[in-house]
């Protein structure tokens, strides 16, 4: 595969702009895509003439933004998606108009994007998280944190090792290659943190319009206990696939290079987390993305694997009762993931880490 040192970024929100500014400062040419009906950040940046960044990424960057997917496809063979997973199907409809058999698509975060992307693509990668913790207002980007490492896997398992190296050379953070997209999805710890923090603080969010610190004030010992219950199910799903997943706190520690002992310690003391204000409304992507596209697939996988998913199911039901949305139906259930007719054994075999380990060992050898 011929990959150029250019990158197209689909998704012009804080995560896309932070990635674009970071990559451009490292000498990579970037073109951003903003969906024509979702141009609020892009329009601000365009009218300012540049992106103003503050926090751990400082300065002013000129960035090109288009709403024409043909330009994105013509610009680079590497397309990084930074839309929320709830927006992936919208951009997929646009991408399907093109022949992408020579392209690499990287979904940040993936949330099992590979399994819903029913089109032929050269290679599809997924990450567990966005490299940046960031917010945007009036075209101004504030980057509160940058992960030292993010988890990634390819859907395809027979890729040329040079492709992995190209992806590594593009990314602004270290990459931890996982055995499968299932391992990556189970490592998106937002599914453990976000929905419970929102639901167990729903009254406070609505009565203060989010005027409190989401982690520092909202992740107290009782909330942490509930998170531990969700984390146990997540780890048990991993075990069924032969994976030894770390706790969510340890995954967060690994990504940020921190060493917090538990959820409350992290919430109190982690700089990228402990200054984050709560959203002003319960209808926020901490629920609308993380419940349907993380908790629903985790719950469905657990049930298929005959694991007790009741803690996750309870959170999904509470989110459904709170918002009136049937997330089990709208979310990434087995049918949407094209896994409904796959047996338990086939599921385990398809995402077994054995082959992944071979890929990783090939990779390390190729780097020597
Ligand atoms: N920002 C962070 O600190 C952070 C941290 C960890 C993970 N992430 C993850 O990274 C991803 C991107 O984050 P972000 O903060 O940049 O997200 P965002 O601002 O909510 O969305 C990114 C862009 O995608 C657009 N979009 C949303 N829904 C869409 C749809 N259905 N169709 C087409 N475009 C759509 C948004 O438009 P609108 O502005 O109109 O919504 C925005 O332009 C999310 O999955 C998020 O969970 C972000």
Overall description:
The protein is α/β, with parallel strands linked by helices. The protein has 2 domains: 6-185, Rossmann fold; 189-337, Orthogonal Bundle (N-(1-d-carboxylethyl)-l-norvaline Dehydrogenase, domain 2), CATH 1.10.1040. It has 20 helices and 12 strands. It has helices spanning 14-25, 40-48, 69-75, 85-95, 113-116, 161-170, 181-186, 190-199, 202-208, 214-218, 221-240, 248-256, 263-269, 271-274, 285-288, 290-304, 310-323, 327-330, 344-350, 353-367; strands at residues 6-10, 29-33, 51-55, 59-61, 64-66, 78-81, 100-107, 121-127, 132-137, 140-146, 149-154, 174-177. The strands form 2 sheets. Strands 5-2-1-6-7-8-11-12 form an 8-stranded mixed β-sheet, with helices on both faces. Strands 4-3-10-9 form a 4-stranded mixed β-sheet. Helix 6 packs across helix 20, helix 8 (190-199) runs antiparallel to helix 11 (221-240) and helix 8 packs across helix 16 (290-304). The longest helix is centred in the middle third of the chain and has 20 residues, at 221-240. The two termini are 21 Å apart. Mean pLDDT is 93; it is low at 355-368. NADP nicotinamide-adenine-dinucleotide phosphate is lined by residues 11-16, 34-35, 38, 40-41, 82-87, 90-91, 109, 129-130, 132-134, 285, 289.
SSE arrangement:
Layout: E1 6-10, H1 14-25, E2 29-33, H2 40-48, E3 51-55, E4 59-61, E5 64-66, H3 69-75, E6 78-81, H4 85-95, E7 100-107, H5 113-116, E8 121-127, E9 132-137, E10 140-146, E11 149-154, H6 161-170, E12 174-177, H7 181-186, H8 190-199, H9 202-208, H10 214-218, H11 221-240, H12 248-256, H13 263-269, H14 271-274, H15 285-288, H16 290-304, H17 310-323, H18 327-330, H19 344-350, H20 353-367
Parallel strand pairs: 1-2, 1-6, 2-5, 3-10, 6-7, 7-8, 11-12
Antiparallel strand pairs: 3-4, 8-11, 9-10
Helix pairs in contact: 6-20, 8-11, 8-16, 16-17
The chain binds NADP nicotinamide-adenine-dinucleotide phosphate.
């Amino acid at each position: 595969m011929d990959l150029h040192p250019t990158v197209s970024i689909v998704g012009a929100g804080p995560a896309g702009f932070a990635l674009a500014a970071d990559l451009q400062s490292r000498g990579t040419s970037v073109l951003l895509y903003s969906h024509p009906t979702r141009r609020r950040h892009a329009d601000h940046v365009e009218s300012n003439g540049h992106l103003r960044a503050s926090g751990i990424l400082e300065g002013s960057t000129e960035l090109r933004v288009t709403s024409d997917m043909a330009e994105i496809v013509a610009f680079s063979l590497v397309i990084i998606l930074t839309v929320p997973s709830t927006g992936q199907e919208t951009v997929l409809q646009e991408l399907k108009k093109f022949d992408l058999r020579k392209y690499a698509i990287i979904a940040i975060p993936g949330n099992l994007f590979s399994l819903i992307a029913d089109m032929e693509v050269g290679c599809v990668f997924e990450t567990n998280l966005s490299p940046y913790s960031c917010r945007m207002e009036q075209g101004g980007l504030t980057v509160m944190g940058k992960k030292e490492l993010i988890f990634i896997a390819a859907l395809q398992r027979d890729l040329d090792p040079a492709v992995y190296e190209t992806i590594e050379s593009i990314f602004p953070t270290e990459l931890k290659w996982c055995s499968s997209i299932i391992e990556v999805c189970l490592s998106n710890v937002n599914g453990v943190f976000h929905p419970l923090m929102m639901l167990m603080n729903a009254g406070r969010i609505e009565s203060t319009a989010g005027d409190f610190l989401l982690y520092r004030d909202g992740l107290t010992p009782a909330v942490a206990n509930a998170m531990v219950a969700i984390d146990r199910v997540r780890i048990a799903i991993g075990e069924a696939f032969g994976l030894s997943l770390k706790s969510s706190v340890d995954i967060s520690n690994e990504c940020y290079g921190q060493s917090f002992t538990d959820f409350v310690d992290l919430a109190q003391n982690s700089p990228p987390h402990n200054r984050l204000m709560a959203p002003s409304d319960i209808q926020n992507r901490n629920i609308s993305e993380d419940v349907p596209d993380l908790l629903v697939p985790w719950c469905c996988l657990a049930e298929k694997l005959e694991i007790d998913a009741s803690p996750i199911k309870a959170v999904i039901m509470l989110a459904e009762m709170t918002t009136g949305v049937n997330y089990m139906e709208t979310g990434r259930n087995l049918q949407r993931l094209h896994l409904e007719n796959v047996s338990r054994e086939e599921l385990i075999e398809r995402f077994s880490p054995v082959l992944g380990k071979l890929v990783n060992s090939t990779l390390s050898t190729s780097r020597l």
